[in-house]
């Protein structure tokens, strides 16, 4: 079975340099790059107009950008090592509401994830620690620190139901922590090379993880069993995203290819090329009409929007 | 005793001068820069240093001689009479030229003041020194793309006997180096940092101590290290189709690495093919012959240089170009030589092959924009009429870049690299690498609107991917690294 996706629109040169991250809200797509500016596009209008540019968000560039599932909170991580928290006001304008700095000297904050309601932020460090921050309090304190074996935490995710934190590491380790008990639930085996991306399914039942093995591994979150391998990428897998229903998984690779995987058949149903540079970011947009939409961005600085072909 | 920063480049003061002298120890660097600026202007017609290795040897000899005469005739360059007050001396000196005589005099002032302090039976002797630690205060000059000192240098004073034995040792080191530099200057001989070290190895403990203090002294005086008559031991290696003819009739041939007498025939036999010669210091009268050179390639590492020189590729292409390495961060001599080479032959393209890691890009930046730790040398050279700035704006970075990392690149651990030989040349970043990369993103050179957007993007990609790559990665290129290099040089 294959599925057709058509290019709907391309925002050329949305950023002057590599776009490292995309994040979505019900009505917008946010993009972040090696430049200091975060851009926000309206995804409800047919030509995806740029509605806001947050200048000087992070002077040295932005490497991670995430939104809460409800779309109310965004967080960005910059190369200087800090995280900024953003909120949208009634007029639809995003503004900074908080700054998180890891006081630990070795602790440049790297990957970040937000809980579904935007009240917690999880972050990784180069030396393998996973920290959780409470954004509900004015000072945004660190409320939990999960220790791992010291390998660089390259990616992190929080499950939509709030129960789990997962981290992927440079040495191939994947850990799942139980947020209720504060303990490690699983140390997942199977991958031996850097894990560059991982993502909980919308129902929090599955965890997808991928990286330099070029295989996407699917784990059952409660048992820790590996339930599937999705193979087909020829390059390192840099980014993963589940569609809102959990039917589809989108993946982006270092060799500029994006793939759409069917969870039902566990096969690749579509492959798209995005320029000839690394595809750093792939993102489903909230389903508004009958068809699914997604966005791709990477080394060429443009954002391409795709729509599922009718009847596909 | 003194009222403003005109004194702040004076190296030495007795601590007992209290009050006003303390102020001058930390006198604002703006004043210092003003001073440099004015001397820079006023000396344009005067300046000529016979010891300056960077001196343009195309300078008209006659006018050069005339300048020399003027310099010597300048009364302010005579030895200072002992009866004068220090403040008088400095006022007299400040508008003058910073040449050999000026440096000799400045060093003598330091020693004089030590003697004065001893005669006055002061408890402490003190020398103040500008230190160059960290990269704060460096910025890139937008007009010429050179890293310059931006007034952020720290001044510290080194006292004797000092509060610790270590401080007393530092004072002794400094005095000993000043003494050796003074000897070299008065006898008009050039000494190497290595020479200095071997004069008192027990005192200096290690070479790095000498290197640091020599550069600190040059920085404090606001002059190039060459004006101290101190050079680094030659570090750079080069090979290729060039020759250097010296006035006395000898010549260096870059392909055979032989010194030849005039009219002796050049026999280029494969067996005598050069494995590399030390980058020479060019004298004013030397003639650099590069008419058949079509490209210059600078490589970061000696290992890369050696493997290229031993390759079949090199046999194939050596008659057309020059290969050079400074074995890591380039020394002033190598940079000066390249600057000279590219000035003599500006049409020859200059390429750089560096590892894809933070140091590789920092080394590239040193070649192109000048050194961050020796920023006083970059700006100094730029401010002197007879010397050239040491930057190389035309240098072109050809690799290794993030686009050379392919999906087949294998991240090798050191162990598997040896065992399986699947090297791939790809390694993960260390904590130090990540720290250095982050610090580099703060450099002016890598600023968002700075001169090197590609470097900024490459450092960011490096951090995202968490990998670095050495030259071997190019072996994955179809046809190997040799074919890749030929392609980059336009030889295919």
TrEMBL record, chain A:
<dbReference type="Pfam" id="PF00400">
    <property type="entry name" value="WD40"/>
</dbReference>
<feature type="repeat" description="WD">
    <location>
        <begin position="188"/>
        <end position="229"/>
    </location>
</feature>
<dbReference type="InterPro" id="IPR051510">
    <property type="entry name" value="SKI8"/>
</dbReference>
<dbReference type="InterPro" id="IPR019775">
    <property type="entry name" value="WD40_repeat_CS"/>
</dbReference>
<dbReference type="GO" id="GO:0032991">
    <property type="term" value="C:protein-containing complex"/>
</dbReference>
<dbReference type="GO" id="GO:0005634">
    <property type="term" value="C:nucleus"/>
</dbReference>
<dbReference type="InterPro" id="IPR001680">
    <property type="entry name" value="WD40_rpt"/>
</dbReference>
<feature type="repeat" description="WD">
    <location>
        <begin position="230"/>
        <end position="271"/>
    </location>
</feature>
<feature type="repeat" description="WD">
    <location>
        <begin position="55"/>
        <end position="86"/>
    </location>
</feature>
<dbReference type="InterPro" id="IPR036322">
    <property type="entry name" value="WD40_repeat_dom_sf"/>
</dbReference>
<keyword id="KW-0853">WD repeat</keyword>
<feature type="repeat" description="WD">
    <location>
        <begin position="102"/>
        <end position="143"/>
    </location>
</feature>
<dbReference type="InterPro" id="IPR015943">
    <property type="entry name" value="WD40/YVTN_repeat-like_dom_sf"/>
</dbReference>
<protein>
    <submittedName>
        <fullName>WD40 repeat-like protein</fullName>
    </submittedName>
</protein>
<keyword id="KW-0677">Repeat</keyword>
From TrEMBL, chain B:
<keyword id="KW-0413">Isomerase</keyword>
<dbReference type="GO" id="GO:0003918">
    <property type="term" value="F:DNA topoisomerase type II (double strand cut, ATP-hydrolyzing) activity"/>
</dbReference>
<feature type="domain" description="Spo11/DNA topoisomerase VI subunit A N-terminal">
    <location>
        <begin position="169"/>
        <end position="230"/>
    </location>
</feature>
<dbReference type="Pfam" id="PF04406">
    <property type="entry name" value="TP6A_N"/>
</dbReference>
<keyword id="KW-0479">Metal-binding</keyword>
<dbReference type="Pfam" id="PF21180">
    <property type="entry name" value="TOP6A-Spo11_Toprim"/>
</dbReference>
<feature type="active site" description="O-(5'-phospho-DNA)-tyrosine intermediate">
    <location>
        <position position="198"/>
    </location>
</feature>
<comment type="similarity">
    <text>Belongs to the TOP6A family.</text>
</comment>
<dbReference type="InterPro" id="IPR036078">
    <property type="entry name" value="Spo11/TopoVI_A_sf"/>
</dbReference>
<keyword id="KW-0238">DNA-binding</keyword>
<dbReference type="GO" id="GO:0046872">
    <property type="term" value="F:metal ion binding"/>
</dbReference>
<dbReference type="InterPro" id="IPR013049">
    <property type="entry name" value="Spo11/TopoVI_A_N"/>
</dbReference>
<dbReference type="InterPro" id="IPR036388">
    <property type="entry name" value="WH-like_DNA-bd_sf"/>
</dbReference>
<keyword id="KW-0460">Magnesium</keyword>
<keyword id="KW-0799">Topoisomerase</keyword>
<dbReference type="GO" id="GO:0003677">
    <property type="term" value="F:DNA binding"/>
</dbReference>
<dbReference type="GO" id="GO:0000706">
    <property type="term" value="P:meiotic DNA double-strand break processing"/>
</dbReference>
<dbReference type="InterPro" id="IPR002815">
    <property type="entry name" value="Spo11/TopoVI_A"/>
</dbReference>
<dbReference type="GO" id="GO:0042138">
    <property type="term" value="P:meiotic DNA double-strand break formation"/>
</dbReference>
<dbReference type="GO" id="GO:0005524">
    <property type="term" value="F:ATP binding"/>
</dbReference>
<protein>
    <recommendedName>
        <fullName>DNA topoisomerase (ATP-hydrolyzing)</fullName>
        <ecNumber>5.6.2.2</ecNumber>
    </recommendedName>
</protein>
<feature type="domain" description="Topoisomerase 6 subunit A/Spo11 TOPRIM">
    <location>
        <begin position="296"/>
        <end position="476"/>
    </location>
</feature>
């Amino acid at each position: 079975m294959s599925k057709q996706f058509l290019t709907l629109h391309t925002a050329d040169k949305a950023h002057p340099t590599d776009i490292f991250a995309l994040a979505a809200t019900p009505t917008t797509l946010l993009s972040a790059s090696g430049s200091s500016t975060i851009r926000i596009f309206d995804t409800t209008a047919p030509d995806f107009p740029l509605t806001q540019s947050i200048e000087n968000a992070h002077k040295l560039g932005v490497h991670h950008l995430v939104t809460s599932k409800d779309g109310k909170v965004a967080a960005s991580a910059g190369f200087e090592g800090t995280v900024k928290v953003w909120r949208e006001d009634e007029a639809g304008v995003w503004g900074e509401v908080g700054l998180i700095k890891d006081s630990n000297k070795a602790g440049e904050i790297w990957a970040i994830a937000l809980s579904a309601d935007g009240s917690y932020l999880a972050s990784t460090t180069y030396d393998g620690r996973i920290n959780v921050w409470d954004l509900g309090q004015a000072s945004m304190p660190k409320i939990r620190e999960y220790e791992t074996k010291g390998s660089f935490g390259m990616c992190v995710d929080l499950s939509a139901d709030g129960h789990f934190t997962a981290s992927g590491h440079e040495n191939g380790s994947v850990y799942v922590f139980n947020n209720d008990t504060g303990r490690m639930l699983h140390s997942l085996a199977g991958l031996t090379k850097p894990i560059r991306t991982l993502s909980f399914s919308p129902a929090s039942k599955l965890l997808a993880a991928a990286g330099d093995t070029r295989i996407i591994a699917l784990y059952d979150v409660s048992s820790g069993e590996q339930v599937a391998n999705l193979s087909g990428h020829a390059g390192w897998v840099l980014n993963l995203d589940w569609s809102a229903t959990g039917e589809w998984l989108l993946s982006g690779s270092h060799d500029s290819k994006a793939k759409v995987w069917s969870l039902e058949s566990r096969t690749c149903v579509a492959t798209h090329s995005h320029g000839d540079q690394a595809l750093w970011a792939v993102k489903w947009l909230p389903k508004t009409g009958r068809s699914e939409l997604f966005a791709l961005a990477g080394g060429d600085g443009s954002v391409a929007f795709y729509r599922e072909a009718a009847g596909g | 005793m003194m009222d403003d920063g005109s004194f702040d480049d004076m190296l030495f003061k007795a601590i007992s001068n209290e009050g006003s002298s303390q102020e001058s120890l930390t006198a604002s660097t703006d004043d210092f820069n003003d001073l440099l600026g004015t001397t820079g202007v006023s000396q344009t017609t005067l300046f000529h240093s016979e010891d300056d290795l960077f001196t343009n040897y195309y300078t008209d000899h006659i006018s050069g001689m005339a300048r020399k005469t003027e310099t010597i005739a300048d009364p302010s360059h005579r030895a200072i009479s002992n009866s004068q007050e220090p403040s008088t001396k400095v006022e007299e000196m400040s508008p003058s030229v910073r040449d050999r005589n000026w440096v000799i005099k400045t060093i003598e002032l330091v020693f004089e003041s030590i003697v004065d302090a001893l005669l006055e039976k002061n408890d402490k002797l003190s020398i103040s020194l500008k230190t160059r630690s960290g990269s704060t205060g460096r910025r890139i000059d937008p007009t010429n793309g050179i890293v310059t000192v931006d007034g952020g240098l720290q001044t510290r004073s080194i006292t004797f006997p000092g509060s610790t034995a270590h401080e007393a040792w530092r004072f002794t080191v400094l005095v000993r180096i000043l003494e050796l530099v003074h000897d070299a200057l008065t006898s008009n001989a050039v000494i190497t940092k290595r020479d200095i070290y071997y004069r008192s190895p027990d005192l200096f403990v290690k070479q790095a101590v000498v290197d640091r203090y020599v550069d600190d002294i040059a920085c404090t005086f606001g002059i190039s290290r060459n004006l101290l008559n101190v050079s680094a031991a030659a570090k750079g290696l080069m090979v290729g189709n060039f020759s250097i003819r010296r006035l006395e009739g000898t010549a260096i041939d870059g392909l055979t690495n032989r010194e030849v007498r005039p009219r002796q025939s050049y026999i280029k036999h494969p067996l005598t093919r050069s494995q590399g010669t030390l980058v020479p210091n060019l004298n004013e009268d030397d003639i650099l012959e590069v008419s058949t050179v079509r490209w210059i390639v600078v490589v970061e590492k000696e290992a890369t240089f050696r493997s290229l020189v031993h390759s079949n590729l090199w046999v194939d292409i050596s008659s057309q170009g020059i290969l050079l390495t400074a074995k890591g961060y380039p020394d002033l001599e190598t940079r000066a030589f390249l600057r000279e080479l590219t000035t003599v032959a500006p049409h020859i393209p200059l390429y750089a092959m560096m590892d894809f890691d933070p140091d590789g890009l920092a080394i590239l930046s040193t070649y192109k924009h000048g050194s961050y730790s020796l920023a006083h040398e970059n700006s100094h050279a730029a401010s002197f009429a007879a010397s050239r700035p040491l930057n190389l704006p035309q240098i072109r970075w050809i690799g290794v870049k993030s686009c050379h990392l392919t999906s087949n690149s294998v991240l090798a651990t050191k162990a598997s690299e040896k065992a399986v030989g699947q090297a791939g040349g790809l390694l993960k970043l260390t904590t130090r690498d990540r720290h250095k990369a982050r610090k580099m993103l703060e450099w002016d050179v890598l600023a968002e609107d700075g001169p090197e957007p590609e470097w900024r993007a490459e450092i960011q990609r490096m951090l995202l991917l968490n990998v670095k790559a050495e030259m071997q990665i190019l072996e994955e290129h179809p046809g190997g690294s040799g074919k890749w290099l030929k392609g980059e040089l336009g030889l295919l």
